[in-house]
Amino acid sequence: GTPAPRGRDWRKIVYGEIGVLASQDQAAAARIMRDWPFIDASRIGIWGWSGGGSMTLNMMFRYPEQYDVGVSRAPVPDQRLYDAIYQERYSGLLDEYADGYEQGSPITHAKNLEGKLLLIHGTGDDNVHYQGSERLIDELVRHNKKFDFLAYPNRAHGIREREGTLLHLHSTMSDYFDEHLAE
């Protein structure tokens, strides 16, 4: 690929801390955007799928004062449960970078949830395993955090199998934002 103009050290700064610096950067950008005249800072929503679903959780849990509503699809709540080929490439070995795995995992910060959260996961996801969302649900329950959850039976990571699934998924997401961000 194209070499990064800032060099290898800059590109590798996230190594061992996936989710930590990226969420700091996104929160900093959101603070700036709140002052833009066409942004209604009283109604900020965020959504993401897969890694973006993890980012949504990190933003809702790490910076709860900035986000009112979040929709997280097929996230990686606990990096210790994700595919070792990917996770170890960017996070190092768990034994050597345990703190980075913990701090980068949204589940570590779940107790801070304040806004409305819709968590969506396919029970047949063979990429980001459903077990991670189950662990997150247990953690949210442990801290008495209210949230909404939608499981799609036997749907894979893309949550698109079977007739009506995509329409249901996307209309549910849209309706969630409409309901919780309405004026």
Biggest sheet, spatial arrangement of strands: 1-2-3-4
Instruction: List SSEs in N-to-C order.
Output: HHEHEHHEHEH
Inertia-based shape:
globular
Query: What is the subunit arrangement here?
Result: single chain
Structural class: alpha/beta
How would you characterize the largest beta sheet? 4 strands, parallel
For the record, give the distance between the C-alpha atoms at the N and C termini, rounded to a whole number. Answer: 45 Å
Number of DSSP E strands: 4
What proportion of the residues is helical, as a percent range? 40-55%
Mean pLDDT: 91
Which ranges are low-confidence, i.e. pLDDT below 50, for 5 or more consecutive residues?
none
Radius of gyration from the alpha-carbon trace, in angstroms: 17 Å
| Percent of residues in beta strands | 5-15%
Please describe what this structure looks like.
It contains 7 helices and 4 strands, in the order ααβαβααβαβα. With 183 residues, it is α/β, with parallel strands linked by helices. Helix 6 (130-142) links the parallel strand 3 (116-122) and strand 4. Helix 2 (20-33) crosses helix 3. The model has no long low-confidence stretch (mean pLDDT 91).
